[in-house]
Amino acid sequence: MPDQGDATGRTGGSTGGVRSTPPAAVRIEGLWKRFGEQVAVAGIDLEIPAGRFIGLVGPNGAGKTTTLSMVTGLLRPDMGRVFVAGHDVWADPVEVKSRIGVLPEGLRLFERLSGRELLGYMGRLRGLPGEETDKRATQLLEVLDLAGSQHKLVVDYSTGMRKKIGLAAALLHNPEVLFLDEPFEGVDPVSAQTIRGVLERYTASGATVVFSSHVMELVESLCDWVAVMAGGHIRAAGPLADVRGDAPSLQNAFLELVGAQDRAAGDSLDWLGGGR
Ligand SMILES: Nc1ncnc2c1ncn2[C@@H]1O[C@H](COP(=O)(O)OP(=O)(O)OP(=O)(O)O)[C@@H](O)[C@H]1O
């Protein structure tokens, strides 16, 4: 297990010793977003602690992607403010963007670059010296099992390979906070295990990962802190054990929190299956 502190001065977790409390990785204040009549995010307040593996969970249409888009500076809120590592996302976007990495939903990449070229380009955008970019790119490609495909064009990558090169691009500048929207969707178990290993190593050094998912087992096994969203509101947030409470699993707690526990499988589908 790597040391909890590193050269960037990050501290990890809350184990032992006298340590100053790190500022929240993300602080959200009164955040609203409406699309026409549809309220996607209904005035949420949330403080996400630093140095943790955070899961943002919620049913389809809960407002997760809209929230992450506003938090990462991709979508302007109608109202409210967001701070990342103490910096206002909309007042100080350059400072914030230098501290975050993002793997968005519906990832768009430069398709006509090879994986290696894509990382070289991202390194230049991030202002890294060429040699440092090369070194980091080589290591990321190796760890993510992309070294053999590094000269292939991104357009020819599979879904899992695209997620992995997107993750490499998001990690290249060693961000303080990494935002991932459904990072495991469409990813096979081997690649998922690889991604998981990289993320665990990254959070162990004191960095923060915020990721959205519908897969409760995954969230339960990876995250130590969760926020549950439904209907544009935060229904619960806190350490995993607190949110789970007395429920046998996060899945049960989640269904109860979003009010789906008693939803029938569909008496109205009495025509479905059998007796053709
Ligand atoms: N660009 C848009 N225009 C109109 N409505 C939108 C837009 N983006 C999101 N919405 C609506 O806002 C609500 C929240 O959507 P959002 O994509 O944030 O949910 P989500 O929790 O990420 O869902 P999923 O898990 O299905 O991806 C939904 O009702 C959605 O239809």
UniProtKB/TrEMBL annotation:
One Pfam family here: ABC_tran
Stretch list, region Disordered: 1-22
Q: Where in the cell is it found?
A: Cell membrane
Q: What UniProt keywords apply to this chain's record, in alphabetical order?
A: Antibiotic resistance, ATP-binding, Nucleotide-binding, Transport
Q: Does the keyword Transport apply?
A: yes
Note the topology in the membrane: Peripheral membrane protein
Instruction: Give the stretches traversing the membrane.
Output: none
- Record-level Gene Ontology MF annotations: ATP binding
The ABC transporter domain is annotated at 26-256
Extract the InterPro entries matched here.
AAA+_ATPase, ABC_transporter-like_ATP-bd, ABC_transporter_ATP-binding, P-loop_NTPase
Question: Record's SMART domains?
Answer: AAA (SM00382)
Q: What is this protein called?
A: ABC transporter ATP-binding protein
- The scientific name of the source species is Streptomyces cirratus
